[in-house]
Every structure is written in structure tokens, then in C-alpha cells.
Specification:
Layout lengths: L1 E5 L2 E3 L5 E8 L7 E7 L6 E7 L5 E3 L7 E4 L6 E6 L8 E8 L9 E4 L3 E5 L2
């Protein structure tokens, strides 16, 4: 399984950004894509996750109501839409592939390289 996250960049506070996670190399539908982030000097933090087939989602309280995960266009891509961004959202964002609908990083077996999101004026 290969994952590729993209779409990071610099955005002003209050702005929006959409990250993409393209997954390949799998042949089954019952799995979960998770999004995590890691800010400098901090532990990796769960952001949200989505079941690949049912599109059920689950978000951390810190982003609930601001972030969504969706499918749009290419079948093997999931998007993390981030709205009302604050400087506290600045981090490297990772997408990950796992079998469990979980917020624990250890439940995700495959990880993509991260993409940097910087929220600053």
C-alpha cells in the first residue's frame, strides 16, 4: 500500500486548505484512512478518519466542525478539507492506512510522507 499526501502550504488565519491523500496498491474496500498531524516539538496528533467504503467519519474535538473528509473525483483519493484555520493548526499532516476506525496511530500500518501546513499572517 502506498499513500501520497499533498496540498499543504501557507495560509492566513481564518483561511482554508484542502489536503489530498491518494492511496494505491490495495485490493479490498474495508479499511480506514486516517489523518494525523505533528507540530514542532509535539507528539503526533489524530485529526480525523474515514472508512473507505461507507464514508463514515470521525474527528478529533480540536477540529470538529472545521475539518471534513470527503471523496471527490478520483476514486482512490480522499480529501481533508480544513476551514477556519488557526496558527494552532500549523503542523506536518500525514495520511495513514489502517483496518480500524481508530484515533490511535498504532492502528495504522501504512503511512504517507507528510505535507506541511503553515497558518500565519
Amino acid at each position: 500500500v502506498q499513500l501520497q499526501a499533498s496540498g499543504g502550504g501557507l495560509v492566513q488565519p481564518g483561511g482554508s486548505l484542502r489536503l489530498s491523500c491518494h492511496a494505491s496498491g490495495f485490493e479490498f474496500d474495508e479499511f480506514v484512512i486516517g489523518w494525523f498531524r505533528q507540530a514542532p516539538g509535539k507528539a503526533r496528533e489524530f485529526v480525523g478518519c474515514i472508512r473507505w467504503s461507507s464514508m463514515s467519519t470521525y474527528f478529533a474535538d480540536s477540529v470538529k466542525g472545521r475539518f471534513t473528509i470527503s471523496r471527490d473525483g478520483a476514486r482512490n483519493t480522499r480529501y481533508l478539507q480544513m476551514n477556519s484555520l488557526t496558527p494552532e493548526d500549523t503542523a506536518v499532516y500525514y495520511c495513514a492506512f489502517g483496518a480500524s476506525f481508530s484515533s490511535r496511530s498504532q492502528d495504522y500500518k501504512y503511512w504517507g510522507e507528510g505535507t506541511q501546513v503553515t497558518v500565519s499572517s
